[in-house]
Amino acid sequence: MSQMDWRKSVVYQIYPKSFNDTTGNGQGDINGITEKLDYLAYLGVDYLWLTPVYQSPMNDNGYDISDYYQVNELFGSLDDLRTLISEAHQRDLKIMMDIVINHTSTEHQWFKDAYNHPESPYRDFYIFKKSKDEGPPTNWQSKFGGNAWQQESETDDYYLHLFDVSQADLNWDNPQVRAELHRIVKYWMDFGVDGFRFDVINLISKGAFKDSKRTGKEFYTDGPRVHEYIHELNKATFGDTDLMTVGEMSSTTLDHCLKYTRPERQELHSVFNFHPLKVDYANGDKWTNASMDFLQLKEILMKWQVGIYEGGGWNAIFWCNHDQPRIVSRFGDDSTEALRVQSGKMLGIVLHMLQGTPYIYQGEEIGMTNPGFTSINQYQDIEAINAYKTLIEQGMSEAEALTILNQKSRDNSRTPMLWNDERHAGFTEGEPWMPINDNYRNINVARAMEDSQSILHTYRELIKLRHQHDIVTYGDIEPLYMTHPELFVYRRNYQGESWLVIANFASYAVELPETLSIEGQIVIANCELNHRTIEGYGAIVIAQEEKYDKDSE
């Protein structure tokens, strides 16, 4: 794959712990990924992004790294990873590593040295501050709840943890820290990986340590030296290679994301932003039982689509990942089998016709659903468990709190991959670390491969279209009918060619606007148009020979 071709690629995200278990211990492993490479080649994706497989106490499922140079024995060994990379390359699949360099585990040797020896040079690898008025240095809130500062047991000092108390933030203002992190990235480049996904990379530069009127994120989100530090990382490591990079951006802005991704700035190739996936947060609060605001979804998606394209940056586009609920349960409809399949295909078509690099999260391509847990004891995720405690403390009933977790918890996407209709869905011969979805006999890879009308085959076709047609990668994007309450309509235009995308987000049939021309050749669809009516959760892409005048509302 040439250096420019990364823009035509499709990335498949693997959550190794839940992908495929070859040891019978109930947890997925690296050899389990190797075992399924033929399936991933059949799907047609280009890159496999692995969430962290480094040594870790797993307080945050691997995003708390205790040794960047070692593989967690839960997942296997360095040799297993070498084999995976080699076998993937033989199938023209590339491996993208997830790397967490905003913080380390408090089990990391750097932190243990810093914590136990206040005079240690590693003390300045982290952010230690004196207490203020016998309390934390600031009132900043951790993203997992509670104050973001943890007091040392022996001193008056506190260390900063924007996430879990076991995840201490690194001090990027220390050049020695940056040099060590560059060394780590180079090690994995030499190891043979083909790309990096940088976790919460826009939080690495902290501003003033002051009290906040909110949570404190205004002091560290897209901080004062963040672009300088990412540019330096680029120049010291992957900048002159064909490795693909994507940065996870927390609460970011369009202007910053253009800076992160415009090629001449030499920072990153592309960025994730999460604004479109907050349209079912009531008043901005994740832990609420709220339905999607469809007009807001269109508005945010198209603001970023048009803004990034016109600004010369690059989008990473996605519905799902290890931190998000299953999209077919969230923005689609899993109430019946027919609606699950129809809405799953519609959501796939809408996303994969957008501009940018699409990411598929394991199981999305077969329409896996939220599991619908019935007890807090089934949840593993620290964020969900903390949120449940808070909701109960606020006076909510257990049933109400569980309803919210069923809608919003990260564990919705972390249940094991469904391979077949055998015991534990073919994921493990042991006891799975998390419960298997009850609907695995109906929703699994083996069944989807056999069914020519499955969601899986729509995803395969969408990937082929991206590889074969430049308009999907390089075309501009033109939003249409933005105030329509049920239809998502947009056009892609490139070198005199025009593709019209029409999707119905309602469960019922909707008549198309009279001003919308539907002449042309059907590229892909999950329905037929019936006298200018599109059925519930229908989606259709029409190639039109010429670009029509912009349609009026």
Kindly list the characteristics that best describe this protein.
globular, disordered C terminus, alpha/beta, 22 strands
The helicity comes to 25-40%
User: Which whole number gives the mean pLDDT?
Assistant: 95
Identify the overall geometry: globular
Biggest beta-sheet profile:
8 strands, parallel
Helix and strand composition category? alpha/beta
Rg calculated over all Cα atoms: 23 Å
Q: How would you describe the overall organization of this protein?
A:
With 553 residues, this protein is an alpha/beta fold. The protein has 15 helices and 22 strands. It has helices spanning 30-35, 37-43, 78-90, 109-116, 175-191, 226-236, 254-261, 294-311, 327-330, 337-352, 382-393, 398-408, 445-450, 455-468, 470-474; strands at 11-14, 47-50, 54-55, 67-71, 94-99, 103-105, 128-130, 149-151, 157-160, 167-169, 195-198, 244-248, 270-272, 316-318, 357-361, 476-480, 487-494, 497-504, 510-511, 521-525, 533-534, 539-544. The strands form 6 sheets. Strands 13-12-11-5-2-1-15-14 form an 8-stranded parallel beta sheet. The chain has a 5-stranded antiparallel beta sheet with strand order 16-17-18-22-20. It has a 3-stranded antiparallel beta sheet with strand order 7-9-8, with no helix packed on it. α10 (337-352) runs parallel beside α14 (455-468) and α11 (382-393) packs antiparallel against α12 (398-408). The chain is globular and about 75 Å long. The model is unreliable at 549-553 (pLDDT under 50).
